């Protein structure tokens, strides 16, 4: 069952693209006919993300991502097209169930994977709960000992995977194939071509997307000799570990209210904090903190607290996480638990009040964290460091400060380290400017496409200028034919315009990334004309002049190869005629040229 085009267009009409994007990117601001801001899909330092409200499309001139309102929701929330359609439908007040019922055909290609994963989560959860007085009693006991109760176990749908073929047999009976289970990341195949279940003999932690759908699983080994303590199911069409965070869906209600989020290291940290009524918490999914995860967090919160492990690995992770977060304009604090203990151990030992006090009142700034970290690497004794050591420490601190784009914060930190090390602030400012200017020059080099975009009017060919005009003024299409365009790309786009294709439909038709980038720039470079009819005629005349010149050059080459006696008289006459038209063009003389 296909979705009616009329319904798609209705949803577009009800959701103005600049308003929807503005909810995710509050710094979106109007400049002329467009809206611009920093791109949320790459590490953008100069606004290169452009939204055109008239056409209902967006384009980043940095990473080249582009599309309409559905594409934006897909990318920003990491969901399928159909999920984006459902989100926008709900925002529009359109109830799809009332219109179509629960029709299984009214889904996209990823829906089967999501169905498998959510059924799997239910099977694992039911197995844990229904066998709690025999097979899974030790698992339940372990979860209780870690500070969890039944409410949290149900809320997060924790489960247990018994043997190697439990879920395979269940899902095959439900009508799925072994290939379906592989695509969903439920089963894998070893070197001996034997199928196995990833979660077998593990406590299962379902991982949810922003819409509350299970997209993957984390598993903790339990009473087994398996070496890997924690594992995640592999990446699939619906899951990428670099883009998701454990507990993000459950944290959203709290996050939307208080705009503060706590980042921790593991599943149990998230669960225990929920147990103690601290729901605004997410965990890194067993990997390094990524830019995609940071951007997801920064869309919802500008106030972030990091509570990662206090061992050397945890300290390095905190450092790298800060360098990823600070360029996004967020405020960060760091909490380091004493004696390398876990969050649940700290709460059991000191109580939730002490933990809350630690987070809210005793956390430290990123610059204090870095001073402690670098001192530990260089020397444990502040009083006995050499001038060379001090220079090394300050150099590292200045490099770290330069990662933030907030000038006020930078200046405060510079003043702080000047006082801390008893050094003239001007010396640190000069060094900071040197490093920052070096980075700025590199950014300008990396972002030269922005300057190209701004100067595109000058750089556009005559045919591109004409195409730009008719894209923004469709009534001129009927005044042209495709023969006007020599450029293959321009001719192809004109043909699509003439049969009524929209800009997004044209963009989707183009195959290569370079063609898509070229056309996107053409769309957004809207030129204002004081007299559009006059501009159209001058442009058309100039294009035809160029065609005449090209034709005359070819004729001249042919005539030069002929002897005087063999010269083609008709060609000579035509050449003379074209020369007269160039010197004295008249309205009626152009018709035979194109």
Report on the structure:
It contains 28 helices and 15 strands. The chain is of the alpha+beta class and 594 residues long. The protein folds into five domains: 5-100, Alpha-Beta Complex (DNA Primase, Chain A), CATH 3.90.580; 109-239, Alpha-Beta Complex (DNA primase DNAg catalytic core, N-terminal domain); 366-446, no CATH class; 455-528, no CATH class; 533-590. A five-stranded antiparallel beta sheet has the order 1-2-3-4-5. Strands 6-9-10-11 form a four-stranded antiparallel beta sheet, with helices on one face. Helix 2 (17-24) packs parallel to helix 3 and helix 19 (407-421) runs antiparallel to helix 20. The chain is globular, with a radius of gyration of 31 Å. The two termini are 46 Å apart.
């Amino acid at each position: 069952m296909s979705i009616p085009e009329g319904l798609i267009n209705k949803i577009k009409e009800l959701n103005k693209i600049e308003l929807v994007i503005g909810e995710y990117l509050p710094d979106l601001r109007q400049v002329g006919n467009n809206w611009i801001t920093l791109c949320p899909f790459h590490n953008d330092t100069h606004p290169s993300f452009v939204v055109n409200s008239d056409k209902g499309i967006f384009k980043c001139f940095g990473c080249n991502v582009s599309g309409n309102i559905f594409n934006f929701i897909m990318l920003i929330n990491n969901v399928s097209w159909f999920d984006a359609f459902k989100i926008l439908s709900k925002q529009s007040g359109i109830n799809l169930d009332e219109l179509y019922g629960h029709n299984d055909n009214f889904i996209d290609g990823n829906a089967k994977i999501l169905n498998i994963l959510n059924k799997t989560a239910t099977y694992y959860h039911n197995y844990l709960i229904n066998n709690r007085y025999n097979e899974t009693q030790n698992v339940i006991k372990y979860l209780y000992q870690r500070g969890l109760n039944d409410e949290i176990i149900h809320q997060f749908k924790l489960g247990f995977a018994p043997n190697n073929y439990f879920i395979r047999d269940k899902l095959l009976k439900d009508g799925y194939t072994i290939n379906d289970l592989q695509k969903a990341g439920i089963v894998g195949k070893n070197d001996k071509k034997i199928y196995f279940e990833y979660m077998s003999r593990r406590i299962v932690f379902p991982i949810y997307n922003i819409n509350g759908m299970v997209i993957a699983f984390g598993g903790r080994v339990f009473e087994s000799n398996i070496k890997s303590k924690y594992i995640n199911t592999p990446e699939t069409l619906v899951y990428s570990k670099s883009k998701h965070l454990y507990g993000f869906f459950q944290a959203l209600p709290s996050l939307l209210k208080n705009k503060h989020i706590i980042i921790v290291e593991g599943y149990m940290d998230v669960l225990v904090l929920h147990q103690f009524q601290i729901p605004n918490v997410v965990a890194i999914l067993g990997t390094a903190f990524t830019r995609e995860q940071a951007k997801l967090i920064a869309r919802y919160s500008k106030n972030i607290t990091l509570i990662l492990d206090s061992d050397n690995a945890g300290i390095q992770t905190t450092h790298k996480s800060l360098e990823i977060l600070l360029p996004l304009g967020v405020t960060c604090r760091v909490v380091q638990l004493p004696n390398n203990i876990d969050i649940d151990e700290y709460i059991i030992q000191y109580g939730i009040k002490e933990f809350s006090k630690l987070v809210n009142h005793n956390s430290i700034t990123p610059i204090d964290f870095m001073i402690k970290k670098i001192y530990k690497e260089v020397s444990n004794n502040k009083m006995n460091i050499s001038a060379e050591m001090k220079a090394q420490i300050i150099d590292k601190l200045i490099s770290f400060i330069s990662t933030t784009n907030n000038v006020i914060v930078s200046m405060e930190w510079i003043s702080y380290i000047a006082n801390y090390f008893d050094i003239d602030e001007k010396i640190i400012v000069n060094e900071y400017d040197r490093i920052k200017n070096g980075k700025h020059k590199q950014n300008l080099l990396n972002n030269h496409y922005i300057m190209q975009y701004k100067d595109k009017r000058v750089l556009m060919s005559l045919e591109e200028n004409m195409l730009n005009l008719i894209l923004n003024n469709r009534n001129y299409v009927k005044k042209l034919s495709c023969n006007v365009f020599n450029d293959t790309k321009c001719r192809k786009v004109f043909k699509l315009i003439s049969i009524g294709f929209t800009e997004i439909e044209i963009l989707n038709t183009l195959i290569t990334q370079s063609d898509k980038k070229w056309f996107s720039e053409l769309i957004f470079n809207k030129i204002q004309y004081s007299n559009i009819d006059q501009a159209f005629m001058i442009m058309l005349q100039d294009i035809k002049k160029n065609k005449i010149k090209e034709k005359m050059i070819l004729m001249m080459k042919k005539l030069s190869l002929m002897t005087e006696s063999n010269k083609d008289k008709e060609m000579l006459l035509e050449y003379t005629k074209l020369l007269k038209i160039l010197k004295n063009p008249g309205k009626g003389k152009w018709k035979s040229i194109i």
